[in-house]
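Task: sequence in, structure out. Protein: Orotidine 5'-phosphate decarboxylase.
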Amino acid sequence: MTKPIIALDFPGEQEVFRFLNHFDEKLFVKVGMELFYQEGPDIVRKIKAMGHDIFLDLKLHDIPNTVKSAMKGLARLGVDLVNVHAAGGKRMMEAALEGLEEGSTGKRPMLIAVTQLTSTTEEQMQKEQRIPLTLLESVLHYAELTKEAGLDGVVCSVHEAKQIAERCGDSFIRVTPGIRLPGGDVHDQKRVATPDFARKNGSTYIVVGRAVTKAENVVEAYKEVCRLWEGQ
Ligand SMILES: O=c1ccn([C@@H]2O[C@H](COP(=O)(O)O)[C@@H](O)[C@H]2O)c(=O)[nH]1
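Result:
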């Protein structure tokens, strides 16, 4: 079973270290835009030096040349997982992969693409993005495009994970945010699920933020996520 990926959505390094210091074990953490844009690449180096695995969730989406150069730089940070938006297109995703391969000194980080954000509903997607498909069809389309571009997998919700595995194969990873403990506040997420449903419905990794980071006892909340994810 993979470790749950804990989203370090904090405003600065003090809050990050206060959170991480509660744990005796090494975690798989996610550094996203909030933290990275405040603290820069140094925060990634510091967390890595503590021995944690890192998903650098910057969701790159730009012209192929820009994404390739940016990925080359990110590869040098020694992170484990990075991402782009599949909506950037196949050529952009191929360029991201080329950048990572050129920039990596050791093992290349895994590269995945966001299909439809877990905060998006089908109605919103159809009206605002003017995509005349069901949400599942759109996610499957982006997953296939991502696979054709040679990436390692996608970000999707738990609700699409099983169909993606059937369509793209089980080795094509499904990273699923929008995870909540039973009865937990969904906040701004729309396509949510519990850790045990994620296990049953084909997630490869779950991403958990506020259900752990905003809990009164963060270690207990993390243990509860692990217990449900592992099916104990
Ligand atoms: O589709 C997506 C892609 C990324 N995220 C990120 O995951 C976490 C989820 O945080 P919660 O507090 O558990 O809601 C957050 O960092 C998002 O940027 C996502 O939610 N959905």
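The chain has eleven helices and eight strands.
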